[in-house]
Automatic annotation (TrEMBL):
EC numbers: 7.6.2.9
Name of the protein this chain belongs to: ABC-type quaternary amine transporter
Pfam families per record: ABC_tran (PF00005)
Domain called ABC transporter: residue spans: 18-254
PANTHER family to which the protein is assigned, alphabetical: OSMOPROTECTANT IMPORT ATP-BINDING PROTEIN OSMV (PTHR43117)
Enzyme's top EC category: translocase
Organism: Actinoplanes nipponensis
Length: 337
């Protein structure tokens, strides 16, 4: 396959699927960083890699853009084997965001964002327009920040510039290695929220590495839990992972407060009963059918009620009781030693 395979495969589209087929990495000193991992990230999905320190998360990520070569297995982007492509060319079509951003200190923010477009030979006007468009997209006023240098920005702002730079050439895939961990928890929360909005509009295929289970649950469409030696313990949606951890080890990893976390990622329909099983529904607090169990709990607590009425287009379609909130398929029941 020629060097422009990724670009051509992506013509007219903005995201590509990623397939890991039995990939593994043994470093020359014998360290097994990644055992044998197979998983698929659909185009436009955000997959999170999570697990304890040293379990091979960064190695997996860096194998996707060929900063590290796998010892075995294949990685396909939209069905094309990355091993058959020129690594430098490949990386121009894969955005990469790392923890401390790695902005060039002596270049303006605009110039930093234009790095890959310049390598791709875009003309100056187009690069400038693209940089300004991306600054807007990540919530930074181009007139105010475009001409500044990285040290003239806060940590959170630099992180946003890192995301803008990774998106500059409209990559099909975005790899993010602990992108929000260098900032304090309040800024992190805000960045995560902005990032979700951004992803809703650009819909890239993203693989994101984190240590933080809350971040994983908040951002991921799917979460891959890795264990020491780069073993894949479970690959599931946040709701599935929290309600049905595959093993006791996963259950322990996702934490004892997973019941509360699960509420935020589970729709009210999961716990809804038909209307008519309780009286006087007109006195009860309400929640929209598009809401989560967490919204239902909040409505109950605010309304000092044990039940909540679920509305669809303003019409009651069911009720949820406080006890039903926690009646998910029992994690313990499915967990094995
Ligand atoms: N060049 C190398 N040579 C030998 N071993 C390495 C090399 N790079 C990484 N490792 C080892 O491979 C394993 C996986 O490392 P990796 O950086 O992928 O883990 P990680 O899950 O991203 O860790 P962290 O969360 O701490 O960043 C670790 O045991 C690490 O020490």
């Amino acid at each position: 396959m020629d060097a422009t395979a990724i670009k051509d495969a992506g013509a007219g589209r903005t995201a590509a699927s990623i397939t890991l087929e039995n990939i593994g990495k043994v470093y020359p000193d014998g360290t097994v960083a990644v055992g044998d991992i197979s998983l698929e990230v659909s185009a436009g999905e955000l997959a999170v890699l999570i697990g304890p320190s040293g379990c091979g998360k960064s190695t997996v990520l860096r194998m996707i853009n060929r900063l590290i070569e796998p010892s075995k297995g294949r990685i396909l982007i939209d069905g094309a084997d990355v091993a058959a492509q020129d690594p430098v060319e490949l990386r121009r079509h894969i955005g990469y965001v790392i923890q401390n951003v790695g902005l060039f200190p002596h270049q303006s923010i605009r110039t930093n964002i234009g790095t890959v477009p310049r390598l791709l030979g875009w003309d100056r006007k187009r690069i400038r327009e693209r940089a300004d468009e991306l600054l807007e997209l990540v919530g930074l006023d181009p007139n105010r920040y475009g001409g500044r240098y990285p040290h003239e920005l806060s940590g959170g702002q630099r992180q946003r510039v890192g995301v803008a730079r990774a998106l500059a050439a409209d990559p099909l895939v975005l790899l993010m290695d602990e992108p929000f961990s260098a900032v304090d928890p309040i800024v992190r929360g805000r960045l995560q929220e902005e990032f979700l909005r951004l992803q809703a509009s650009v819909r890239k295929t993203i693989v994101l590495v984190t240590h933080d289970i809350d971040e994983a649950v908040r951002l991921g469409d799917r979460i891959a839990v890795l264990a020491e030696g780069g073993r894949l313990m479970q690959y599931a949606t946040p709701a599935d992972l929290l309600s049905r951890p595959a093993t006791a080890a996963v259950s322990e990893f996702v934490g004892t407060d997973r019941g509360i976390r699960r509420l935020a990622v589970t729709g009210v329909r999961e716990a809804m009963r038909p209307v008519g099983q309780i009286e006087e529904i007109e006195r009860l607090p309400t929640v929209d059918v598009s809401g989560t169990l967490y919204d239902a709990l909040a409505a109950m607590l605010t309304g000092d009620a044990l039940n909540v009425v679920v509305l669809e287009d303003g019409t009651p379609v069911g009720t949820v009781s406080r006890s039903a909130l926690f009646d998910a398929p029992s994690a313990e029941a499915t967990a094995t030693a």
